[in-house]
Write a structure and sequence with these properties.
This protein is mostly helical. The protein folds into two domains: about 30 residues; about 90 residues. The chain contains six helices and no strands.
Length: about 160
């Protein structure tokens, strides 16, 4: 038998072993892959995504929307909720605040967006199940109010 025939025979045997090994690996992988009935469904986050800003409002108009209505007092009164896990009632209120801020962000100017996101972030963090700092909300509110007043807001 020539050397080239030996190599060809070895190559055929090696290929057969490799293919059978791949089939065995595939069978083992199927043992660990959940069937369609076993796949765990993950619930979507209750946090509403903010729409992309249209920029319809300027800084003063955005500040007026946030500070002139009941939203700012709801934010201030609910800030303490983010320091502990949320119960059902608090989750509803925090979700409403996050959504309301998101609606304003959808029309806000660029400067306001950053401030409003800073106000909203601890509420979203609480909705995700994390503990947040109420002082972060107070600081963000104060910074935004200063920016608004520097921009001509009289509220």
């Amino acid at each position: 038998m020539s050397t080239s025939k030996n190599w060809a025979a070895v190559a055929v045997v090696a290929s057969a072993l490799l293919l059978s090994g791949c089939g065995a690996l595939e069978d083992m992988a199927n043992d660990f892959t959940p069937s369609s009935g076993e796949v765990e469904q993950v619930a979507p986050s209750p946090v509403a995504e903010a729409p992309i800003s249209t920029g319809e409002l300027n800084l003063v108009e955005t500040c007026n929307q946030f500070f002139a209505g009941p939203l700012v007092s709801n934010v201030q009164n609910s800030a303490k909720f983010v320091a502990a896990p949320l119960d059902e009632a608090k989750t509803g209120r925090v979700t409403e605040i996050s959504s309301s801020i998101g609606q304003i962000i959808g029309q806000a100017d660029e400067v306001s967006i950053a401030h409003l996101e800073a106000v909203r972030a601890p509420f979203d963090q609480a909705l995700d199940g994390s503990i947040a700092r109420p002082k972060a909300i107070a600081g963000a509110l104060e910074a935004y109010k200063t920016t608004c007043q520097d921009g001509g807001f009289k509220g």
